[in-house]
Amino acid sequence: MEKGQSQRKANRGMHRFVLGRPFVMLVAPILLSVLVFNHLRKKKKSAEKESSEVASAPSFVSPIPARGGSHRYDIFLSFRGSDTRKGFTDHLYRSLVNAGTVPICVFRDDKNLPIGEEFGSQLLDAITQSKISIPIISENYASSKWCLRELIHIMDCKKSVSHMSRPHIVLPIFYKVDPSDVRHLEGSFGKSFLSRKKQFDEKDIQEGKRALEEVSYLSGWESEKIANGHEGELVERVIKTVLSTLQRDFQLDVTKHLVGIDDHVNNIRNWVDTPASHARMIGIYGMGGIGKTTFAKVIYNELSDDFVHRSFLPDIRETALRKGIPYLQDLLIKEIQRNEHQVCIVDDGINLIQSTLKGKKVLILLDDVDHQDQLNALARERDWFTTGSIIIVTTRYKAVLDQSEFRVDYMHELNELDEVHSLLLFKRHAFRMSHCAKDFEGISRDILSTMGGLPLAIKVIGSYLYGKTDRKVWQDVLKKLRSEPDRDVQKTLKISYDALEPKHKEIYLDIACFFVGEDSKFAMYMWEDCVFYPNQGIEELKLRCLIKIGDCGRFRIHDQLRDLGRNIFCQGQRPERCLKLWFDEIPFKARPLARVTHGSPFFFTLSFSYV
């Protein structure tokens, strides 16, 4: 009997267990739904309570990251969503994102993101990580707790001294409100603030009043006083100021060790400031390594504040060789105006450049142009550009500028540095300062004497010697420079030599090896007999900045270019023979006969025959 009772109890327990499973499965979703409903109701209630304070809730960021430094964003927009979100703020946001040659990264609020303390922290961090804040102060701006907190943090960032490269910039827009009403909390702006005052913390009230007063004194824009309230004009003015303010991020990289350049830059700056009725071109020419690109970049940076549309195309000679001229045209178009066009042929590129640049005041730097086709494809005619546009061209080949259909308005030749500036540049690279120890003063001058004031050579050798305190190393460098040119410097200079025709190369080598400082008429007879067309050849060498004709028709050539020619000549000769060629005791008239001549019936391969 006991066994039967225990069995019945076990069965009842089993029944309860079996019946309990579907019961739990039924109840659990109900309980979960109740919990979720209560959570959502609380969240909705909280959202309704805060909706007026957070009408412009958290972030939406333009897809392009900000450039450089510790900043994540270029612009932070602070605004009252119910006042301007779908109107002026949206117009301004889209114009900012699409302005300029480089996209601007703009942080603005998005009402679809969740509300809470985490949002507040992220929002304030976004202000800290922005370069510029633009508070759009509208009628109901001060009625929002979060707008006040944003403004408080914005003004605090403006005053704070941090690790950032420059202070936080605030550019307020007083949208249909008077700054004096913002300052004194009067008018409809003041009424809006007072209507919500009871819902603010005392700290928010006091700090909010302080921030509103401070921002009211800042230089900004009053929407009703610009073009009779036309918002398009207001947006254009804001864009122009923003781009100018961000200009530092668009500066081209230029070495800090600049010397002897200020007067040249000032001359060009003064010329640019004179009124003109058309687009203008600046041509900068000179031998390789003389500093043309650096000089042009300094001018570009100096002028860039005056231009919204800018483009820098470096190494055009090399890029055209590797990727073609259409690639360069494509780069130019995309830098001036971002679009999806891809240039495949030169003619299409020309048409696109004309249509893209039409009506735009542009600043363009075309670096290292070495052929007329390159310049014609990128900037052939003045009519392609609006009045006020500036085109800067650097080249080793002056003929590119002389033959330009655009017609160069300002031609500038860069020459070697004088002794004072050479020494200063050398010290800045070799010692990272403008002076050196007396023990190294003499040998520094001796080393400089081998460089002929060529900035490239000074930079290369000076940088190599930086940190080397053993005078024996300096002495070895001096001995080496006196016997053979620096390889890196020669590689740069040889580009101009490689561009010559074969017969012009021979003329250049003759001058470098035998005729430096000599009257040109003696060599002309030989070259004419060799059918080298010497008049044309000499003109070509001058245009490529490889030689000059000095007083009394004597050949002049830079020491580094002289060494280049002699080094090229010696590559195909016996070293001992080459060394003998440069001995002063060899009579001048014997030197042309010492070279391997060109098959002329009057000049044969002779070794050191004396006339």
Overall description:
Helix content is 52%, strand content 9%. It contains 27 helices and 14 strands. Strand 10, helix 15 and strand 11 form a beta-alpha-beta unit. The longest helix has 49 residues.
Short summary of the structure?
Pfam families: NB-ARC, TIR, WHD_ROQ1. This protein is α/β, with parallel strands linked by helices and 611 residues long. The chain is 52% helix and 9% strand.
Distance separating the two termini: 148 Å
Structural class label: alpha/beta
Return the CATH architecture of the largest domain. 3-Layer(aba) Sandwich
Number of domains: 5
> What is the helix fraction of residues, given as a range?
40-55%
Pfam families: NB-ARC (PF00931), TIR (PF01582), WHD_ROQ1 (PF23282)
Domain TIR: 71-216
Organism: Rhodamnia argentea
Protein name: Disease resistance protein L6-like
